[in-house]
Amino acid sequence: MQEKLILPDLNHEPRFCREGSIVLDFVSRSDGDLVRITDEAHHSLSLRINGGYAVYEADALDTWNTLEAEDARALNDGHRHSAVLTVTARGTRLYIDGYQVFSGTSTAFLAALEGALTLQVGGDGGPHVLSFDVLGRALTSREVLGRAHVAQPTVEFAANRLNALDVARLATWRRGSIDLRFRVRGRMQEGALLAVGGGGREGLNLRVTPHGLVYRALAADGTVLREVAAVGQWSDGQWHRVAISCGHGAVDLYVDGFREVHAPGEFFLGDVEGLDEIVIGQDCHGVRLSGEVQSAGLYEQVLSNEQVKRLHGVAPVETDAVFDRGFHGAASYRIPSLLTLSSGTVLAGADQRVSSPNDSPNDINFVVRRSTDGGRTWGPLQTVIDCPGTGQDAASVIDSCMVQDPATGRVHVLIDHFPGGLGQPNCVAGTGFDEQGRRLLRDLDGALYRIEADGSVSTEDGWATGYRVDEALNLTLEGEPAGNIELAPGAWPGQSLFAVPTCYLQHVYSDDDGLSWSEPRDLNPSLKEPWMRFLGTCPGTGIILRHGPRAGRIIVPIYYNNDENWLAMCAAVIYSDDHGETWTLGASPNQDRPTAVGPLDPRTFTDETWSLHEATVVEREDGSILMLMRNQHPRARVATAVSGDGGESWGEIGFDDALPEIWCQPNALSLSGPAGEDRMVFANASLMLPYRGCGVVRLSLDGGRSWASSRTFNPAHYVYQCLCELPDGDIGLLWENECQGLYFSRLPLSFFGLPLEAATADEQSVPTR
User: Fold this and answer.
1) Distances from the Cα of 358 to the Cαs of 331, 363, 398, 399, 506, in angstroms?
2) Per its record, what are the GO molecular function terms (predicted)?
3) Does some domain include residue 405?
4) How confident is the model at residue 126 (pLDDT cuts 50, 70, 90)?
5) What confidence tens digit (pLDDT) does each residue in 504-522 have?
6) Is residue 170 part of a domain?
7) Number of folded domains that form the chain
8) Cβ-proximal residues to 520 (8 Å cutoff; 6+ apart), any chain
9) Which of 11, 77, 395, 639 could in theory staple to 387 by disulfide, Cβ–Cβ 3.0 to 4.6 A?
10) Tell me: the pLDDT tens digits for 659-684?
């Protein structure tokens, strides 16, 4: 008999707490409220299930914030789940089944509500809350994990073979999960971990091989009908956990708590014709594993990413929202840049998308936040570039790229700029400047004008006009306001002069660790060619060369297109040998690239197959530079090229078979490490779900020539990211889920599952996982 649910009296402690936790366990088969706390003014804090996922809303005095944890799905599956919400000065965190699934910048807790409080828990035929409590302190991630419900198997193996009654119960299961713990006696060993048969024929198995793990469905003649394979080295004599989760249209294969494969299409026990046998540690013909399966269970439940992590004992990773939807009134934030400065300060940059989450044309500003404690807390938002106008008529900046010069301490940020109404698809070819470096304007008939050094405006032929332009690019005519040259036509009634409608590459810098910033400076006059429509940054970070004759060179990755097809892009770098005073455009790996129709010409090619888009660069220990590039090639792998002359030219383009490419920005970072190692981390979105997602972080010990370990950081929504090495040696990851915000996570090197401080040659040669 279920005990009566005891509810706390919120009008005593922790009524006036600014920080705290809401803790509950529940079972649900429908959407509805889990908990709603309402004050006398009808403000509320609420946690509900909507569409099978959790939604938290803080509607308090002067505060409104919604956290949609859309990646933690199937909470209405009729099985028990745990939910914990914590609020501190760092923001709000939402945990499901022991692991964090979302965070927000909102700091509203019970103290933000007014007057007497009313508590509603479950009810109205919706979710059934099994336990509930409110605490006057925020639980730690470890405490949350310790309180979380652990999924229990429907059938657990007490021997190597299930009895006939249990097998009969499972014969109709078309969805569910398998979890087992095993070890193999050494490398090059293999065998069946689990096998399922019917009528003397094996119809389903899970095997460990010298090259990885394979889950298969077999036909009556033994041919393979379906196969899900995870490449890696798990026949190493060590204990490992493997889970198969079949449901929601796919098979997910997890090893040691991390998803290795997501394969569309389902196949499970009920797909075996005449199922009458389920065994572990051997196949259906009695051939035994060269090792042992210590424990195994079958689950009617389709286990989630969080539930598998809980079963496998994965350490929690803490995440905080640095910029999110509604923060400072913005519709969205996108495009992370992240940098650890020589002082130890961590600087995070973002597009502040004021009007909508869209790319340019849009009202987009460049903003930063600073952390002086290694990313644990963040200072207030600072607006570095505030573009004039509103909505699609506003000017915009987009795609910041940061780098610090250690010789001067100066932080350089390069960023794309568009006048109002313009973005990458609709800007025109040109630089926006004349040969003397004077800014050009255009009237509605296409006639050109130029801004002189004193701010006066003259015609292209040199005739004076009554117009003037001030430092903020405001336009006056005979002393009267006449708009701003950055606005779109029609945004200011009667405005007749406008910026040339092309893309501008701009540079700002800070000499005090990001506390204050210079005014933007246009680099188009020295970098952009007249035939280029777009010339812009690859967002994220640049690098400073450490080795060889060009040590100290600043390198920033960029890409550009031509006037024939705006999607025909070429990646390259710009570099500075005088601490950012002047910049030079290097050659692209696409220059003279062999194609079926001859050497590629970046000025005229149109075939998007050869496009090289957003890129990231890292310096190897030998002084060469590795560029990893987003691209449109049918190989669907990250493109690579190597430069031996500091980015001035590049070798042959290759494709890294270990790095999936789904048309999304990559980021990479060189790490400090022991002598003889060339540590590098790489992150990108690796799977279309069909939305862009499955953020994977990989570690290389040989400068990106191979990948020693990979970890699926977030198996669902995940798009752009930026990496930094924190002062304590952890890895900082600032990442986005595209529509809701930017989130900062700390990843210790132990996250990769390798003994990195004493890595051996054998570990360096482990196949990519």
Assistant:
1) 9, 9, 11, 13, 21
2) exo-alpha-sialidase activity
3) yes
4) confident
5) 999 999 999 999 999 999 9
6) yes
7) 4
8) 385, 397, 415, 417, 506, 507, 508
9) 395
10) 999 999 999 999 998 888 999 999 99
